[in-house]
Structure to design on (850 residues):
């Protein structure tokens, strides 16, 4: 028979395992119970709402979610505790599936890139249908530009189209808006002579490669000209210059400083079918980061959460924190998101060709 | 003048209250998070992020950087005592640290590791300090072709670390390279060797692989061995002996620290690779090659110097370009943005004093963490004498928990056990396991940087000046290994 002291390590082990789950923000079994909405007001009292972020900590999606949870609880009746749980891996699909399969009790939400649509169109999404998510809204969107190194002789759309040497641009993954959508669009719809070099780890690495003259240019959101160290330095020192206003949400003052006077890509796309694809792409950029709830979340809870998100995005303290962290809040409600997601139920062949461009 | 002013301003800022108090708190958190497998600097910073909103930037960053720094000192404890690296950057320290513990020299291994860590950490901070004026030019020297040559040099370490079993070592390294190819093909963006599994889309994770390959086989062995150290411990003399070892091998400590800074400054390589490069260098340059893997103190000193000096190196691209070289730096960068601090030119002009204060934080934290760990060594080293049946549940817990905590995906635990089976088979059949790990860590980035080099420069990437220098160094290294191996065979 085992002596009693031999159980001590086992009991301690179980205890520490439990505490580990707690730190990761896993809802306790009591809080994860599904219950029907009876009286919506007290439902969130004393509860914990978890926002699952399907990427590693530190990225823009993660930081924005952490900013939201600071201010959103005060707009939810019952003022619940809100936490962020990062479930990275599988090109963001593991975390996204965790949101999709979570109990639809209004206590688990998700925050991810609208580029999840690209993963679905590329056939990478298995066991879920992105269009079935319950959408809460989008808190941030982008305005995209295309810039080029100043020592290169390209200034106009025609220059980009007729470049003798292909213009080398970097790609950090087909399931990102920046690389999977904007760059192929500039190549296919605008006809720019781009040589897309795949394999960079992220946007910051691409910027470093431009500064080291390994690459010639890149598409970039306007806010990155203020917040991404390398891009800011290159722009301030005129090492690079923006040459195209690609599109996205309506520009605000900060965006205008970058895009003012630049050729607007929409003006150079003539064919109606290309225009349709351009508009679909710009919708993805306008609603770059989306909040969702698992399919089947009761409407009463969704209503509370949607209203809370809408109020949070215009909260002065949230806006100040967002500005400090380099975000420009842009709210799109769930109806806009649903309408936009509906467009992707039948994807035009040309869109498929575009995102599969070699 | 501005440099001197920033230097002293940075020191006074760190020594002011409450910054210094938080430095001490951060150091304590760092040592604890390093010592417990599954916890790491990234997790500590994430847990503290809610508290730093609204804090003074200096105070918040002192706290976070002291955590990042101290983790690399604390992570040696489980590496030496249980063959479980506290964080992946301590992986190379298990290769000789644990055998030393089995030989009854746990105290010597720990005190040598802490002393080397302190020297390495301070060296890294000083290099950061010296190179502040030329930070940008330094990082821009290492584009894709130069990175590829650095990685190629690392892959050649497989030959060095295979000992006398070169063929087995190369085959094991090849297996590691193959495993590293699992995931999304970075060039075509299509899944590769994933068998339709979403789990494999981003490739296999490092921590479960490490836990399985190295720790689980030792747990199985411990069940029959009874306890880690079978001989009587001489803790007092071993403790001072370890400190003397670090100073006796000062050349190795400085060279390994230099390697750590350089590798840290190249985005994408990281502390784990740095520790293995330093370990490989220790084997290559030692007069006593045969004792590596059996408890050679040089095999502890080198990786520990390198993984602590990495922090200074990693801060170079983070501060100068906003390019995080590792997961720790990615979270630290997020904290910069939250606090409204923009990395880049301003860190070398308007906020120069803040950059200098980071240098001071690294120096002071390394000293304090080393003193704390040294003070506890005599007690901690006695763990090596605890009966195996009391230790095994904890070690298994570390393996399971550590594997799970990295990504919070249950599949990671299965991965750890699968690699545990592979690791145990390799141990029984006397195949070297380190080459598998090196192949895995470097394989993917080698493939990627080679592709980017060819795509951007064609074959002329081989003619870039720094690439040429690195190529010559790599060739010298290969010849050295070949000649040493010949000499070894001759003496046999």
């Amino acid at each position: 028979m085992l002596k009693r002291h031999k159980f001590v390590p086992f009991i301690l082990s179980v205890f520490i395992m439990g505490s580990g789950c707690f730190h990761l923000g896993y809802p306790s079994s009591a809080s994860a119970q599904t219950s029907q909405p009876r009286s919506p007001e007290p439902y969130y009292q004393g509860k914990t709402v978890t926002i699952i972020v399907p990427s590693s900590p530190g990225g823009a999606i993660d930081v924005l979610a952490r900013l939201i949870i600071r201010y959103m609880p005060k707009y939810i009746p019952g003022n619940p505790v809100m936490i962020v749980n990062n479930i990275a891996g599988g090109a963001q699909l593991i975390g996204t599936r965790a949101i999709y399969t979570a109990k639809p009790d209004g206590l688990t939400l998700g925050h991810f890139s609208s580029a999840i649509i690209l993963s679905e169109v590329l056939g990478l999404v298995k066991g879920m249908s992105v269009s079935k998510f319950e959408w809460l809204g989008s808190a941030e969107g982008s305005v995209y530009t295309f810039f080029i190194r100043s020592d290169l002789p390209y200034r106009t759309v025609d220059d980009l189209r007729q470049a003798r040497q292909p213009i080398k641009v970097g790609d950090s993954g087909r399931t990102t808006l920046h690389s999977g959508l904007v760059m192929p669009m500039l190549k296919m719809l605008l006809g720019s002579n781009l040589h897309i070099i795949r394999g960079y780890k992220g946007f910051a690495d691409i910027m470093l490669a431009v500064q080291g003259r390994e690459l010639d240019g890149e598409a970039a959101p306007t806010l990155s000209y203020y917040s991404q160290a390398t891009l800011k330095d290159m722009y301030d020192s005129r090492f690079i210059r923006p040459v195209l206003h690609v599109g996205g949400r309506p520009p605000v003052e900060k965006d205008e400083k970058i895009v003012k006077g630049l050729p607007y890509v929409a003006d150079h796309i003539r064919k109606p079918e290309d225009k349709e694809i351009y508009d679909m792409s710009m919708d993805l950029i306008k609603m770059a980061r989306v909040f969702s709830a698992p399919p089947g979340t009761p409407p009463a809870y969704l209503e509370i959460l949607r209203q809370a998100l809408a109020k949070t995005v215009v909260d002065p303290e949230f806006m100040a924190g967002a500005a400090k962290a380099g975000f420009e809040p842009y709210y799109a409600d769930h109806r806009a998101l649903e309408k936009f997601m509906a467009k992707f139920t039948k994807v035009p062949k040309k869109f498929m060709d575009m995102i599969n461009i070699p | 003048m501005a440099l001197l002013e920033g230097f002293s301003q940075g020191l006074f800022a760190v020594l002011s209250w409450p910054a210094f108090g938080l430095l001490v708190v951060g150091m304590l958190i760092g040592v604890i998070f390093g010592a417990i497998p599954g916890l790491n600097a990234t997790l500590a910073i994430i847990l503290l992020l809610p508290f730093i909103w609204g804090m003074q930037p200096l105070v918040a960053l002192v706290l976070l950087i002291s955590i990042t720094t101290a983790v690399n000192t604390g992570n040696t404890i489980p590496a030496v005592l249980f063959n479980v690296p506290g964080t992946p950057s301590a992986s190379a320290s298990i290769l000789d640290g644990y055998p030393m513990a089995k030989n009854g020299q746990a105290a010597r291994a720990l005190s040598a590791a802490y002393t080397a860590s302190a020297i390495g950490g301070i060296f890294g901070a000083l290099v950061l300090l010296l190179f502040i004026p030329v930070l940008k030019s330094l990082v821009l020297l290492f584009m894709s072709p130069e990175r590829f040559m650095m990685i190629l040099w690392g892959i050649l370490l497989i030959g060095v670390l295979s000992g006398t079993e070169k063929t087995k070592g190369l085959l094991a390294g090849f297996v590691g390279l193959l495993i590293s190819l699992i995931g999304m093909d970075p060039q075509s963006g299509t899944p590769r060797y994933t068998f339709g599994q979403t789990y494999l889309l981003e490739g296999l994770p490092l921590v479960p692989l490490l836990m399985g390959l190295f720790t689980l086989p030792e747990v199985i062995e411990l069940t029959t061995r009874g306890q880690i150290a079978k001989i009587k411990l001489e803790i007092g003399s071993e403790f001072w002996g370890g400190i003397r070892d670090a100073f006796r091998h000062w050349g190795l400590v400085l060279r390994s620290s230099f390697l750590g800074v350089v590798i840290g400054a190249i985005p994408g390589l990281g502390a784990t690779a740095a520790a293995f490069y330093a370990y490989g260098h220790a084997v290559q340059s030692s007069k006593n090659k045969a004792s590596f893997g059996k408890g050679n103190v040089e095999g502890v000193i080198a990786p520990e110097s390198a993984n602590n000096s990495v922090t200074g190196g990693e801060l170079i691209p983070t501060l100068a370009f906003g390019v995080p070289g590792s997961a720790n730096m990615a979270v630290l960068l997020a904290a910069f943005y939250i606090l409204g601090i923009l990395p880049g030119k301003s860190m070398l002009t308007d906020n120069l004093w803040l950059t200098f204060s980071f240098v001071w934080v690294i120096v002071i934290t390394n000293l304090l963490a080393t003193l704390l760990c040294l003070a506890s060594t005599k007690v901690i080293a006695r763990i090596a004498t605890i009966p195996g049946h009391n230790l095994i549940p904890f070690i298994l817990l570390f393996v399971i928990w550590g594997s799970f905590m990295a990504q919070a995906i249950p599949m990671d635990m299965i991965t750890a056990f699968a690699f545990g089976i592979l690791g145990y088979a390799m141990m029984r059949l006397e195949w070297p396991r380190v080459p598998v790990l090196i192949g895995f860590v470097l394989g993917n980035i080698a493939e990627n940087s080679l592709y980017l080099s060819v795509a951007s420069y064609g074959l002329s990437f081989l003619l870039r000046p720094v690439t040429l220098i690195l190529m010559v160094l790599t060739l010298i290294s290969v010849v050295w290994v070949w000649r040493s191996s010949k000499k070894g065979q001759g003496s046999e």
Observations:
- Chain B is about 75% helix and 0% strand.
